[in-house]
Design goal:
It is built from one helix and ten strands; from the N terminus they run E-E-E-E-E-H-E-E-E-E-E. With 170 residues, the chain is mainly beta. It has one domain. The strands form two sheets. Strands 2, 3, 5, 6, 7, 8 and 10 form a seven-stranded antiparallel β-sheet that branches. The chain has a three-stranded antiparallel β-sheet with strand order 1-4-9, with no helix packed on it. The model has no long low-confidence stretch (mean pLDDT 89).
Length: 170
């Protein structure tokens, strides 16, 4: 008869008439972070890292020095925010230049195993009560980030691993 692995029936066409079915886009559920603290941007601090120059957080801005990821549309609450383009990989040391509130965007552990959230909280950062931000590639739930904030003193050192984006307001 027939040998092992032989298929007697096989679908050859889905009768689409040559037209591709429209893809349904399902955006990830976004955490509202209502259990966070209110956004504090009235006393803005600044962050520095080597010779990295701050940039405006606008769509199309290159977020990391070792990756080609570009920023998606930031939420209204982060309008006018600036960021430091630093490496995604490896341990990074940031310094507080101007004392005040500084911010970091990173995914939470449930989103991405490469989060810096716990390390930030261990250094005194608090989650901000703003919905998650689709930082880049909005189709991937792993890139939805939570904003963390901390009041830092001039010269204070902040350590981050993989991966977070430092933000501050001018």
């Amino acid at each position: 008869m027939y040998g092992a692995g032989v298929k007697l029936r096989q679908l050859v066409s889905k009768a689409t008439g040559g037209r591709e079915k429209p893809k349904t886009s399902t955006a990830p559920d976004v955490a509202d972070n209502n259990d966070g603290k209110p956004l504090r941007n009235t006393k803005p601090g600044t962050l520095t890292s080597g010779d990295a120059e701050s940039q405006a957080l606008i769509p199309g801005a290159k977020l990391f020095t070792d990756r080609a990821y570009i920023a998606a549309e930031p939420p209204a609450a982060l309008k006018n925010a600036r960021f430091l383009p630093i490496a995604m990989n490896g341990q990074k040391t940031l310094k507080c230049g101007r004392p005040g509130t500084v911010f970091l965007l990173t995914p939470v552990l449930q989103r991405n195993r490469d989060t810096a959230a716990q390390g930030l909280m261990d250094q005194g950062f608090e989650k901000v009560a703003l919905p998650e931000v689709p930082l880049f590639n909005p189709g991937s739930a792993a890139n939805y980030c939570t904003l963390f904030q901390k009041d830092c003193a001039a010269g204070e050192t902040i350590l981050i691993g993989k991966w977070a984006v430092p933000l501050f307001f001018p």
